[in-house]
Amino acid sequence: MLLSHAFGLFTHPDAEWASIRKEHETPRRVYVAYVLLLAAIGPVCAYIATAHLGWTVGNERLIKLTEISAMQLSVLTYLAILVGVFALGYAINWMAKTYGAHEEPNAANGIALAAYSCTPLFLAGFALLYPVPWFNALVFLAAACYGAWLMYDGLPIVMGIPKERAIMYGGALLTVALVILVSTRVGSVILWNSGFGPVFISG
């Protein structure tokens, strides 16, 4: 079962990456059995936290989102995660020849590497059930750092390249990931101006 890889990436990542390369699952299966499930953790927890639990900043009153607004933003976030993982996986495959790896027609290894590297960020979504901004920021920062390390660790194993090339390859991919992140922020501003912005209420 693909979900078993989530635990292995925290306990024995090298062996898990080798297993992932050996399985060589299709992008569709990785998405259906792994990404669609784990990517939902953050949006679902964010919906619960923003619509039902609420949060405070300093000594201010409890703030919540309306249920419709929270649902809209959670669904849009979920879609952005799915697109972002695919875009990163496609970039991994697209850059493969540049760094001596094999470029595949269906980007199977690239999608798998992107999906499994994002595992810490998927699981960090549980932290949103405790809606304290500084706590959430620290958890997601730690998850992003471990995710970046997982990608660097997995590149030579999954893509079959020398380890010394993984540094440059990983650096290029982190740049792509930042571009994707900035694009989602810009997209958020556009959507908020189009009527999908958050609607706040007092708790």
TrEMBL record:
Its main location: membrane. It is a multi-pass membrane protein. The chain crosses the membrane at residues 31-55, 75-95, 107-128, 134-155, 167-192. Residues 7-183 form the Yip1 domain. Keywords: Membrane, Transmembrane, Transmembrane helix. The keyword Membrane applies. Pfam families: Yip1. One of its GO terms (cellular component) is membrane. It is found in: Membrane. The keyword Chaperone does not apply. InterPro entries: Yip1_dom (IPR006977). This is Yip1 domain-containing protein. It comes from Marinobacter profundi.
